[in-house]
Design brief:
about 15% strand, single chain, binds NADPH dihydro-nicotinamide-adenine-dinucleotide phosphate, Rossmann fold, alpha/beta, three-stranded parallel β-sheet
Length: about 300
């Protein structure tokens, strides 16, 4: 029997609708319009598509979208100057610098120059520290989306055993912090973990953020567990290019109690949570009530 397939597309549409409703109220009651600035350096085609999608969804949610496209040979000083201008702009509540940046730029310096209150990606060192110490932070969008889906599926996560495979700063580590914040018993696995299959089989919640196509197979999953597949991998199959996750959906879905598919699982939630974070940043900037259920 196949486990419940968590529909990330539908979930993301619901999050976007809730964001739009709150934005409309904010504009009506407080005369405030949230604004998101996205900065893209260079002309990477995948990043361009992603930035365009962000712009479209931002406007659809009733927010202002500011796109800044800079040439690949822009100096780091010029990028930092733009970030400072956006930091000071009251119409901008969220700033996102699209990664990766060209090799001549120091991404950490750029990210840490963003005003932490406008850091809607949640990558600024202040937000990392706030999340790590259980304080109110801007939370990275992808793990926030995973947490929302897990909460919606389970209600409370308290006491559950969670295993996060992957320890990157953008997915694995913040995901583990969020699960810990919801009182899960958390293990972080990585490329040096011994007996990975046995570690994974102990999980009530298994989050795969590895970047290796279909490496988590059904025999690594506890029967009935909830599996969140963050991976996005492009593979050639039957002469066609396809997107697959880090989880082997065919074998995993017959063991798991619930599972996110790829595509259509975690992916759509990432931009939805970017919009939610922009709204949250705007509410905090203006001292008005934050939307319920759209933050960690
Ligand atoms: P990284 O490459 O930064 O991190 C991968 C992690 O996986 C590392 O911690 C690495 O361990 C671990 N790992 C690698 N091989 C193994 C292995 N054989 N066994 C156990 N652990 C292993 O990737 P990201 O965190 O940035 O992304 C992970 C995946 O999520 C990618 O497929 C990416 O495309 C996708 N992604 C999807 C998003 C979305 O919106 N859905 C957003 C962001 C990412 P170690 O540290 O020891 O090297």
């Amino acid at each position: 029997m196949t486990g419940h397939v968590i529909d990330g597309k539908a979930f993301a549409a619901d999050v976007r609708a809730r964001v739009a409703a709150h934005v409309a109220r904010l504009r009506e009651e407080h005369g405030v319009k949230p604004g998101l600035a996205v900065v893209l350096v260079g002309a990477d085609p995948a990043s361009e598509v992603y930035v365009r999608n962000k712009g479209v969804q931002t406007v659809e949610a009733g927010m202002a979208s500011f796109e800044h496209k800079l040439a690949a040979d822009t100096s780091e000083a010029d990028l930092l100057a733009l970030v400072r201008v956006l930091n000071a702009d009251p119409a901008v509540h969220g700033i996102l610098v699209q990664l990766p940046l060209p090799a001549h730029m120091n991404a950490e310096l750029v990210i840490n120059t963003i005003d932490p209150a406008k850091d809607v990606d949640g990558f600024h060192i202040s937000n990392v520290g706030l999340l790590g110490t259980g304080q109110k932070a801007m939370v990275p969008c992808t793990p926030l989306g995973c947490l929302m889906m897990l909460r919606a599926h389970h209600g409370t996560l308290a006491g559950m055993t969670a295993v996060v495979v992957g320890r990157s700063n953008i997915v694995g580590k913040p995901m583990a912090q969020l699960l810990l914040g919801d009182s899960c018993t958390v293990t972080i696995a990585h490329s040096r973990t011994r007996e990975l299959a046995a570690v994974c089989r102990g999980a009530d919640i298994l989050v795969a953020a590895v970047g290796r196509a279909e490496m988590i197979t059904g025999d690594m999953i506890k029967p009935g567990a909830t599996v969140i597949d963050v991976g996005i991998n492009r593979v050639e199959r039957d002469g066609r290019s396809r997107l697959v996750g880090d989880v082997d959906f065919a074998s995993a879905s017959v063991v798991a109690g619930a599972i996110t598919p790829v595509p259509g699982g975690v992916g759509p939630m990432t931009i939805a949570c970017l919009l939610a974070n922009t709204l949250t940043a705007c509410c905090r900037a203006h001292g008005v009530a934050e939307p319920e259920g759209l933050t960690a």
